[in-house]
Amino acid sequence: MFDAIVFAVLTCGLVPRSALEIDDASQTRIDKIANLIGECRWGIHDISRVELNEHGLPRFNMPLELGLFLGAKRFGGSGQRGKTCLVLDSDPFRFQRFISDIAGQDVTPHGGEIGRVITAIRNWLSGSLPESEPGIPGGLEIARWFRRFQDDLPALCQELRIEVHELTFTDNVRIMSKWLCASNRQRRHEGAMAARP
Question: pTM of the predicted model, to two decimals?
Answer without folding.
Answer: 0.84
